[in-house]
Each structure stands twice: as C-alpha cells, then as structure tokens.
What does this fold into?
Amino acid sequence: MSEKYDDIINHPRHESSTRKKMSNYDRAAQFAPFAALTGYEEVIRDQEKIVYDRVILSEDEINDLNDVLNYLKKNDRVEIEYYDGYRYDIIEDTFVSYDVIRKELRCRKHRIRLYDLKSISILE
It folds into this structure.
C-alpha cells in the first residue's frame, strides 16, 4: 500500500510564495461556531405589540352607533374609534358609504368593519 504514495510521501509541505502562513488562532476561527441570527431575538422583541382585548358593546351603545350610522351622509366628517386588531384607535376621516354586504364603513382613507366600531361622532 505504501508503494501507491511513494512519489509524494517524502516531499515537503507546500507553502505559498504569495501568501503568508495563517496563524493557528486564525485557522481555529474558521471552525468556531457562529450565530447566523445574531440580533434576531432583539428585532422580534421590538416588533412585539401589546394586544388589548376587544370591548363588547352594550345594547345602548349598539343603538347609539346605529343612530349615528342612520344620520351619516356622504362627505360628512367623522371621528371614529375602532379596534385595529391590537388596540383601540381614533381617526378622523370623511364618510363615503356603508357597505351592507361586507358590513363595513367606507371612508376616504379607511375601511372599518362594523364589528370593530366602538364609537362614531359626526364632526362639524
């Protein structure tokens, strides 16, 4: 079996004439474990949102909402408090229409599901 490699077995190890020899420390660093997702957990924590529960409206509050919805006219300026999936938000917008099939309130900049409404006020 040694006959197979006799032509190379006693040759000196090749050393590059253009590159200097790598230190043992640098050679070891090539095989050190590495964290490909460094900082990922911090980014995830920054993206976490505090989620608030949706408020269940009383019958009186639902009746008040229905009254305001019946008085709304196109281009009325409104202030709306609604649940955005995480918390309650208050916006001002211009009312466009009320979609009975999709059960949503359409304004110029927003579309809000009726289920998410908490209050509506007509601004003057």
User: Anything to note?
Assistant: The helical segments are 24-29, 40-47, 59-71. The longest strand covers residues 88-99.
